What we know:
The complex is a heterodimer of chains A (347) and B (395). Chain A has helices at 44-49, 52-67, 83-95, 104-109, 113-122, 137-151, 167-175, 230-242, 265-274, 284-287, 293-307; strands at residues 2-10, 73-77, 127-131, 157-163, 202-209, 217-226, 252-256, 279-282, 315-317, 326-333, 337-344. An eleven-stranded mixed β-sheet of chain A has the order 3-2-4-5-1-6-11-10-7-8-9, sandwiched between helices. By secondary structure, chain A is α/β, with parallel strands linked by helices. The mean pLDDT of chain A is 94. Chain A has two domains: 2-209, Peroxisomal Thiolase, Chain A, domain 1; 217-344, Thiolase/Chalcone synthase (Peroxisomal Thiolase, Chain A, domain 1, 3-Layer(aba) Sandwich), CATH 3.40.47.10. With 395 residues, chain B is an alpha/beta fold. In chain B, 33% of the residues lie in helices and 18% in strands. In chain B, the strands form two sheets. Chain B has a ten-stranded mixed β-sheet, sandwiched between helices. Chain B has a two-stranded antiparallel ribbon with strand order 9-10. In chain B, helix 7 packs across helix 12. The longest helix of chain B is centred in the N-terminal third of the chain and has 17 residues, at 72-88. The radius of gyration of chain B is 19 Å and the shape is globular. The two termini of chain B are 17 Å apart. Chains A and B meet through helix 3, helix 4, helix 5, strand 3 and helix 6 of A and helix 5, helix 6, strand 3, helix 7 and helix 8 of B.
Amino acid sequence: MLYIHQHTCISPQQTFADVDIESLKESVDNKLKAFEPAYEGIPHGILRRMGKAVRMGVGAAIPILKNNAAIDGIIIGTANGGMEDCIKFLNQIIDYEEGLLAPGNFVQSTPNAIAAQVGLMTKNKSYNITHVHRGLAFETALIDAAMMIKESPGSSYLLGAVDEISTYNFNIDYLDGWYKKETVSNKDLYGSQTPASIAGEGAAMFLVNDKKEGASAVVKAIKTLHTQDEEALKNEFKKFIEKTSFTNNESVILLSGENGDNRLLKYYSACESVLPDINTIRYKHMSGEYPTTSSFALWLCCHILGCHQIPAHMNKKAKKPEKIKNIILYNNYKGMQHVFAIVGNCE
Amino acid sequence: MSRVFVTGMGIISAIGDSVSANRDALIKGRTGISDLTLFPTKYAGVLPCGEIKTTTDSLKEKLNAHEHGVTRTNLLALHALREAIEDAGLSQQILTSGDTALTGASTVGGMCLTDELYHDANKSDNGSEYLASYDCGSVNIYLQSRYKIGGIINTINTACSSSANAVMYGARLIKNGLAKRAIVGGADSLAKFTINGFKALHILSDEKCRPFDNDRKGLNLGEGAAFLVLEKEEDVAGKRVYAEVTGYGNSNDAFHPSSISDDGDGPYLSMREALNVAGINEHEISFINAHGTATENNDETESRAMIRLFNTPPPFASTKGYTGHTLGAAGAVEAVYSILSLYYQELYPALQFTLPIESTGLIPQLSYTSASLKHIMSNSFGFGGNCSSLIFSKS
């Protein structure tokens, strides 16, 4: 069991300070860009040199580390890290024909720069790792944290994920058919009935350990899967649900990673068909699509389990349960990488 | 928690395309560092590298890997993985099973295709066939889809210590009951991105690298891939067992984005943690496969950390003088070399060494010799202060 004690999120919605997710911020040109705070607590000279991914990651981590400097490790998931810096350096290589280059962008571009920068700023010399397994980068980080907690009872970790929209990864994923050709507002994302989604970005950070007392949520189970076959997916999801001990559906909801891509609907339908009577809510119209949106989803779970309020714009199959005790998350990335998780309250 | 054993190995590097070819080169002290002949860069003939002298097209033919968007990194990974699973005798049914994990590492991924990436990232029409192949995760996603591996799949990037962490993650999956077996390793190919990146940091040598030598001039980049098959104790009866994975440690130096602190805090802590996990004391380590990149900073700080922990360090050497620095593959490549030493009870000579570092006086293992070896430590340190140490023990 992995208990979450603090959760922070920098996202395209108002999730960082004065949280308000009732009102929905709108996408521009098929992009939902993060609202970045003023980043108090990061020295100006260091902030200036940070790329956006590092900045968002460190910015989301600081409120957690302020009160918990002596954590036992930093565990980050990011598919691409500082993609902007990466391609800036690549462009210099080509444009200057491998001439004399400044190393700044190169050093900032390595995906482990986020965990490294957090470690450096807090002088934390303990376990430090970066998982980069594309659409499951956050999930494998979470599994890592769960193992660490089991191996060292009483230990606490900073667990989180970051990915950014850069011009370059937007171009690459657009060319590969993962962002919509026509302009679609996030408000109309699920009705679009066309291939592809809209781009998003963000950072979510969590303080996790094995202490139930005072926790805001608990991750009870998680399973990752690689498949393109919706029947295989459905069978695995069924097995996953059967292992849980839910006696009725009253206090359970499904949080779906549906993203407006009509090619991927079959996977979401397959999972929803396993739980026909359950309320379903969605989140990608808030976050946009990127490889580590499940970290945004986990932040949402913590928030919803804490306040028992679900904004109307999230409902797919409405009928609000009395009190939400468990949230089942299903997400998939590019129709290939899937995750199921159960997040519960701690009462 | 179950004990974890190595039952299969596969490797391709500048010194050979199989475990036996690599061992042969190590015994004979034959370096793989040379002038670049296949890789197109302005630095061919200027900066020697550990280049694998097999073209990407020949690798595709040899491996029958003609899928859309396959990169050189994918091919090197596939080459090593195939040897490892055949060596361990893992059947297709076992690979597909939900308790078979794959944890690999890469820092370059498909970025070896610098020119294609430049085109695709900066244009918005006519994408290349490699659009889904650039990220680090693409390598293991390719291996998973090729073999339909059924368990947890992961990719780790902690720069130059990446694949040591992949070995550690796989071993922990088994110990935590999340997998019965794990295929663990890493792959990286030469890329303009890394050559120019390390060049910009002024840490590439224009001659063959000289780990732990007082007059070392920097590192040589290399390319390669290596995988180990890890299985739990209950499942290895009747199988050939190369070694046991007994210890691992991961620490952050928390000092500087691209260099290690003077006293080598990160290296010291990762080595000490690995000893703690293995439950042995420092005097029981028979040999250290050092990170030893031959940069000014690494070799001096690693030496200091070894002296700090061991007082008088055991025999040690770096194999970077054979393969160059294979970055995200280095931890796995050197895990294979450490395990070969244990299994055959032999040590391989350090290359290009003449004079010890003045301030530390440490002299690496200089000749091929048979030796009685019980526990071998393998170090990998990376940018971002990411330090990891593994311990393999004679089974």
